[in-house]
Amino acid sequence: MTDGVTIGQAAAFAGVTVKAIRHYHQHRLIDEPRRDSSGYRRYGSADLLRLVQIRTLAAAGVPLAEIGAIIDADPDRFAAALVDVERRLTDRIDDLIARRGTLRRLASGDRALLPDRALALLNRAADLGFTPDDVTMAREGLVLIKALVPEGFDDYICRIERALDDPRYGSLIRRMWRAAEWEPDDPRIDELATAIADHFLAHRALLPIPAGLQARTDSAIRYSLLTHHGQEQKPAWTRLTALIEARLRSAGIDIADQTPLD
């Protein structure tokens, strides 16, 4: 009987595909065997053993580019190489678990975008009488702050938590949300802007500016993106914001270039 088996038989015996064996040849993981008198390559027992080793390591997550060196290594190097592969696989597993968690949080709402503390703050705002639209706008603002000034996000959350403990502040902010539906020339906007600015002047720790914003060279751009979010369809808010900023500047505070006091 002719020595060795065909590539199809070798694939079946080793638990791989013919395509995989040819791929292993291309990566020089296994030498191409001799051909018989009919021109067919014949794989012997050593080749089958090599194929099983390659298949096992590949299935364990070892990159093909590293398999040849691992198989040919002495026992100590073989063991050390597997430890290194295991470490990298563990890192990949941790990353995949984190990604799966992100997908699950996305499926449940905002948990992938905001930490639990921020979500608790939004829930508290709803309990204080802010409408669903108010909470949605606040949620979007928090997402932007976390993205644009991540180093100041926790500090900002602290400031908003303290602000919600202030009944007067809560009342003013609820009126601010209602002002979105007013006409830009509504006289109540001037009154509200003065009241909000005066409250900030009396309680400067409540100034809605994330810590670290001032230190950025593009702080004005980031501040504008944060402050004017949602104003495109709400011209009354645009005017209200401008009046508040003007009132604060007249008192010596440039809100776009101001780090809140503790």
TrEMBL record:
Domain HTH merR-type: 6-73
Superkingdom, natural source: Bacteria
Listed InterPro entries: DNA-bd_dom_put_sf, MerR-type_HTH_dom, MerR_fam
Keywords, comma-separated and alphabetical: DNA-binding
Name used for this protein in its record: MerR family transcriptional regulator
Organism: Nonomuraea recticatena
